Amino acid sequence: MRRNSIRIQGGTSTRRYARLVADAYVEAPDFDPRVVSAFESLIRSVERLFRQVTRKLKVVFVSGQPYASDKELVEGVRRTGTLYISTDYNEHPIFSADQNLKFRAVHDWFAHVIVGRDFSQRGELAAYNAQAKLTPKNALPALFSEVVGQA
Predict the structure, then answer these.
(1) What's the mean pLDDT in 25-30?
(2) Which residues pair with 85 in a beta bridge?
(3) Distance CA 27, CA 25 (A)
(4) Cα Rg, the chain, nearest whole Å
(5) Cα 113–chain centre separation
(6) What is the pTM of this model?
(7) How sure is the predictor about 10, in pLDDT bands with cuts at 50, 70 and 90?
(8) Which of 42, 86, 127, 149 could form a disulfide with 145 if both were Cys (CB 3.0 to 4.6 A apart)?
């Protein structure tokens, strides 16, 4: 078992765990200088992974929500070779707008298209676990916040 994977043990329900994470996410400050290094490490990883993604398919940034479901995302990308990423709600306290969009593309490609995880709470936990395998250890707190915290 990887040490950077989330494991829900015993009788703890996914919904209760998700609520605890969501509460902590909402209570966290918008900017905390103590986490900048984790986000910088995540950004470097995302830049590298984004280059891999764009060698395999076309990434297009669009306004609005391009997919109604995870199934539509996966089928659309496989059918067209194009991954559409929403530019909506793209403000971030550390990532630039471009970096945040690249993060979304990397996440959707590796965690949802390649690994096949859905958009449910359990799916995003599994998506985090999948993406954590590609992410430097020191960037995992930032990845957790971006994937699990936001979900």
Answers:
(1) 86
(2) 61
(3) 6
(4) 15
(5) 12
(6) 0.86
(7) very low
(8) 149
**125 close to 8: Cβ distance less than 8 angstroms:** yes
**Closest C-alpha to 117, from 109, 106, 126, 104:** 126
User: What's residue 4's pLDDT?
Assistant: 47
> Cα(96)–Cα(94) distance, rounded to whole angstroms?
7
SS3 per residue for the chain:
CCCCCCCCCCCCCHHHHHHHHHHHHHHCCCCCHHHHHHHHHHHHHHHHHHHHHHHHCEEEEECCCCCCCHHHHHHHHHHHCEEEEECCCCCCCCCCHHHHHHHHHHHHHHHHHHCCCCCCHHHHHHHHHHHHCCCCHHHHHHHHHHHHHCC
- Provide the mean pLDDT of the chain: 89
| Cβ atoms < 10 Å from Cβ of 114 | 15
How many residues in total does the chain contain? 151
**CA dist list (Å): 22 to 6, 16, 147, 150:** 15, 10, 11, 7
Model pLDDT, residue 2: 36
